[in-house]
Amino acid sequence: MSQLVEIRDLKVAAKTDAGRTVEIIKGVSFDIAPGEIVALIGESGSGKTTIALTLMGYTRTGCRISGGSVTVDGQDMVQLSEKDRADVRGTKVAYVPQSAAAAFNPAATIMDQVIEVTRIHGLMPVDAARTLAVELFRALSLPNPDTIGDRYPHQVSGGQLQRLSAAMALIGQPKVVIFDEPTTALDVTTQIEVLRAFKSVMRKNGIAGVYVSHDLAVVAQIADRILVLRGGEVQEVGSTDQILHRPQHAYTRQLLGAFEPVPRSPAEAARVADLHPLLEVDHLVAGYGPLQSDGMPLVRALNSVSLSVHRGRNLGIIGESGCGKSTLARAIAGILPRKGGNIVFNGRELAADARHRSREELRDLQIVFQYADTALNPAKSIEELLGRPLAFYHGLKGKARDQRVEQLLDMVHLPKSVRHRRASELSGGQKQRVNFARALAAEPKLILCDEITSALDTVVAAAVIELLKELQRELGLSYIFISHDLSVVEAICDEIMVMYAGEKVEQLTPSDIGRAENHPYSRLLFSSTPKLDPGWLDSLEQDPELVRAYCRR
Amino acid sequence: MKSQVLSLIAGRLGIAVITLLIVSFAVFFATSMLPGDTASILLGQAATPEAVAGLRKAMHLDDPAIFRYGRWLLGLLTGDFGTSYANGRPIMDLIGGRLINTLKLAAVTTLFAVPLSLFLGITSAMLRGSLYDRVVTLCTIGLISIPEFMVATTAVLIFSVSLGWLPALAFANEVHSLGELLRVFAMPVITLTFVVSAQMIRMTRAAVVETLNTPYAEMALLKGASRGRIVMRHALPNALGPIANAMALSLSYLLGGVIIVETIFNYPGVAKLMVDAVATRDLPLIQTCAMIFCLGFLVLTTIADIIAILANPRLR
Amino acid sequence: MTTPVSTTAPRRTPGYRFNLVGIIGFSVLLFWVVVALVAPWVIPYPVGEIVDYDYLAPISDKFWMGTDYLGRDILSRVLMGARYTVGISLASVTLACSIGVTLGMVAAVSGGWLDTVLSRFLDAMNSIPSKLFGLVVVAAVGSSLPVLVLTMAAVYVPGSFRFARALAVNINTMDFVTVARIRGEGTLYLILSEILPNILGPVLTDLGLRFVFTVLLLSGLSFLGLGVQPPYADWGAMVRENISGLSFGAPAVIFPCLAIATLTISVNLLIDNLPQKIRDRSDA
Predict the structure, then answer these.
(1) Domain span at residue C247?
(2) Rounded to two decimals, what is the model's pTM?
(3) ipTM reported for the complex, 2 dp
(4) Which chains contact A through at least 3 pairs of Cβ atoms less than 8 Å apart?
(5) What's the protein's topology in the membrane (chain B) (predicted)?
(6) How many CA within 13 A on the CB side of residue A377?
(7) pLDDT in tens, B5-48
């Protein structure tokens, strides 16, 4: 059978800041048959997006194709002139971006941008293009398909924009569509609808696709074949079924392994015998914007949330974007002063504003942020970063401080040699370990972890979670673990609190998950988390009433 | 949505008024609170202490500063700008015709500079990295690096001294024909256009380049759009706000340029009047001229901000 | 998302290399600074002395840059003029940026009413055109070296404040500042240890740009007769003195102009070709 896309020994070179040229794609070859969907999977830096974009003969600034061929429908995109490439783009190969919100021009209506491809290439009259667009909107199950095109991008939701960008790609009736992590930025409940829409449209029109993602479970739902990439090289290729069930390569097995973390053993949690809770939050209210006449902020991000954490036990807080989980962490830490309710920590009431808390109170309650990149001062060495809390809280100086810094690095499994490095010289996982070590330096009783594994690759995130558990055993810490990812929370927490729209929906233990007596929203949320089973999406049935009530698509 | 735009514009106008108040305060106190007794200056060194005291009383100079400020501000608002210390004529009479001359100069310059800068700025952004872009960039760096008087003297050296095409001096009052008008205006306008355009080109280019680096510009490229289409359809509509800002900011360089240009070419405008007033320490005249310039500057920046608000598609 | 990041291989001071144009700019700047320092010992003739009866004379063996309208040696006056032009500009720009950057960081870190009042007031000051401000002050108090330095510093404080505040506000929202704040650190620590090191590069670049503006403003004021007063002269004042020679292209007008242009253009070229690392986000 003749292949639609043939990539042979593709090499892409990039220029670094220092002016050196490095090869980031090191001889990749694969084919795509007509109508086949191939997934490119790998962690950040594996080159998956770079490879996908070469199908359009395009590389981002600083990169260029340095060797090999990319033949699409008989034409080698590498050899074509820039003008001929432009003719192929949008007509034979189309692109669905990761962030549709950024890829739509804010100054033009959605319809104008969706049908722009037909204008550029003179494919059909404007009226025909509009009709086709509305058909596509309908096929992608967008609400108000007849009028949604008249709106501006900022007037529709993220999930809708993502589907609209698919319409924008499909309008030129391409042979291949590149999906660049199209659901990564979406909430799980929204992701389902978008994935379904993509799948049905692609299948109906027999379009081939390249699906770029870091999420094996998502890819399992839509791809026929999976390419596992690492460091610009193919590790393993196989059918979806084969990759999921009979992985050959060690790295693939690692990826799969990271997907199912080991839950916290009941024995670990059972050691707790403290009657008084370490932290008690009672009817907490907080928000943003100017205060109203009733003393409450204009936007209430937290509405009367109560919780308690016992010494040595972990509480997970789970919910979708905008549910107030991060606000909760900030209110407890005193970064965003609460406007109502009460926080009792270690038997004493905490002031609303961190500025009014004692140094000891601040030391006992540490917070670790999601992005180590912004949480670590780029102008300082690792030693300075870890040394400051030691000097500030414990008055350590000179040799004693140096020893403690080494100890801390050892605790988070980092070599002593990183001491003199700066954060920018470390990898993502290493940075997050430093970030965590800084919180440990204070010797706290409770650490608030705000999405600390969300920016990490799956394998790295799993290792960080294991580290957290290990440290807990050694130091008797408690964590409040905030995440949008159920599997992460399940792995480390004794109790899980589900939040929705600034309110606590319910609190349950990991073993309760999936029971019929769960709150309807919890059931919806839990069932929306993709499973590694390729048949999961097709067999998933959700109550449409529930979806309508809780999803902001 | 409409009401949001209106309230934003109203807010901007409010800020402009407050700014003007602060500026008037600064101008008044910079000129009248600093050392040097006005009455003694006016009467000269031979004056008796009694005469000085009498004049101080007549001019209300012994009143608290805040009252004098209030009276001065009230005068400005009612169109009473006071009288010149130097020759006792109402300031209104001194300024009137000269303000029109300056405005004429500014208007003609704007007419040339804006289209020229838009064209050069946008095209060099489109052809980023090309020889054309580099030449334009180098020229603009050169132009913003040298003082206005140097641009003017160079222009005189070239057009008047070497080529003999244009007169070196300008007298706007003695113009009889269109040809003469053009010849008289040519040197000041050429100089000012150079001074203003350099800034405008740089900022326009920067604004367009920034929008060309956005994901939606990349998306347009991946749809197969040509370079021209990406710039015209996707970059420009979004760069409108920043460009308007660049225009306004650069036009405010006109004010600085106008002071030098009117002096060099002996052009009878407000700026020349003000430089002369400084020589005679004619404070009321200086204050009024300063307020006129600040008002001009504020009007420009406010207009730019309002254009930016109107151009923001998210507020549509 | 998947932009390739070079791995942890040690990089040797990445991006700190200057290109040729930058080196040329730096050399010219260095030249003028050295001239300003050593001028009194290298000038061929005393600056105030009339050494030739032929005024506005052309270039000759004796007078490498000709003579001025009184018959004084231009070369000597240009070299000494560097002291005034470079010295005054440097002093006032340093003053302006120290005040502006300090206030900017304080405003960004403190926030609240202090930020509002400072921003509003300095923004209003910003809407007084710089030359006009110079005119008004000089009219009121007359021109002397301290007045010039202070006036020009006052002119550029608002711009420097605005620039530093914008940078500091960005840094201030970063999590590492939040971390330091809820560790219990005071404002001084936040400013000196968390904010300043992260805005230093762009702030120094901005200082360079403002130096150019200051040189231009000083030259402009001197040209109008409001800057450095006779018998001393900076380059702008020299152009003013000898403007009568303009009609026949006397070197007395051209050389001071060239001196200004070489200084300002070289600084601009240096800044435009700074290593990306230092220049980061300085195009505000």
Answers:
(1) 18-274
(2) 0.82
(3) 0.82
(4) B, C
(5) Multi-pass membrane protein
(6) 28
(7) 888 888 888 888 888 888 888 777 776 655 555 666 666 666 67
